[in-house]
Amino acid sequence: MTSDLEQLFGFLRFPSISTDSRHSADVRACARWLVRTAEDFGFEASLHDTPGHPVVLARNVHREGRLNVLIYGHYDVQPVDPLDLWESAPFEPEIRDGRIWARGCADNKGQMLAHLIGAGKTLRESGDLPVNLTFLFEGEEEIGSPNLAPFLRDHREELACDVIAVSDTGMVAPGVPTMDYGLRGIACCEVILRGPERDLHSGLFGGAVANPATAVGRLIASLHDADGRIQVEGFYDDVRELEAWEREMWAKVPGVSDGDFLKVTGSPSLFGEKGFSPAEQTWARPTAEVNGVGGGYQGEGSKTVIPAEAMVKLSFRLVPDQDPKDIMAKVKGHLEAHCPAGVTVEVVPGHDGKPYLTDPNSRFGKAAQEALRNAFSAEPVMIRGGGSIPIVQDFREILGADTLLLGLALSDAQIHSPNENFPVENFEAGIRLNRALLEALSKTRDV
Ligand code: BES
Ligand code: MN
Prior knowledge:
CATH architecture of the largest domain: 3-Layer(aba) Sandwich
Bound molecules: ligand BES, manganese (II) ion
CATH topology of the largest domain: Aminopeptidase
Shape: globular
Largest sheet: 9 strands, mixed
CATH superfamily of the largest domain: Zn peptidases
Helix content: 25-40%
CATH class of the largest domain: Alpha Beta
Structural class: alpha+beta
Number of helices: 13
Radius of gyration: 23 Å
């Protein structure tokens, strides 16, 4: 029989990059591998086509009177570029310094496979699980899950559940079990500024027409004031203030001091909204970020040209109770109102997702804390995640169930970056966590 790690390595070898259509067949092959793997463990598994990448479902035999638990994960990964910064090939996993190195090992293949292996082993050893379990694995999380909400609506009965568990978040520090009881939402767009009808000689025309690349700089600058506060009118209208108990609790969380943030980011200094710690800034405050900017000559040496157009890709991280559609409308209004003279602006909205917030001390939340305590032999901390998993709020709205976010990645996991990594011990802890979680959740039935 293959070992757990060998199984993970097999999973990691699929370049299941969801955003790149050249990898569609790899994404599909990866989904088929999941079906086979789940079946080998004794689950009933199926592959479901969508207009995009497939969804994989797997379940044990469901019995009357037991808790219905759904475990979600994503088998797609982010692109690997810049490739030359990887110390080992992204789809040829290897172990160095006790860590697995490969694209997707932390986000999300290692975390999700730990659950499949954990439950699979329990099923093999005991012939049954203490709950009715359904696995839902998608291949489009990294592109905003465009087809998953419709899939949930179409399979509402089949996916009906009491609670959902997801391991696709982080741990604040090694050995410190971490539960997220919130996630930020997101709204993305691409902005195109157009000037002259073609690139112009900057000597012949410079000074007489506006330069779109200059204009894009001014437009970006209009988003924040000098202290980093967002200037889009009405942007903060629906922002829910942090609760006093959260600030107090977070002040004691390890791994998120100013020094920790400086170390993990390698930035020369911290910068952000005044009056909030880095943990508060990233877990409970909204942002406006430039994810990409371009225009004009990018090649070697200089080229004296006024580019015909320039662009910027923006994303906004949102917190309760901001609504992504409302924010995008406000952003569009701001960009149009602040478009510098002499150019035109086009705002193309991209994908979005709502923020999420739940009670960490609900009866399921308490069971999850107990499971984390057992799996790691340490006291769990409760935080909110700065990242986004848009489907989590859809789960609540469509399936009527809340999600337990039990993170296993470290803050230096380098997810979405070169040299993504995941400690072997976290993978093993994830396998233990699944067992402890199903056990603890099954007991919530008796109370
Ligand atoms: N696993 C992350 C989200 C995450 C990481 C949440 C750490 C909390 C803590 C997820 O795969 C991700 O990267 N999501 C994207 C969503 C987007 C593409 C819609 C994100 O947050 O950028
Ligand atoms: Mn991700």
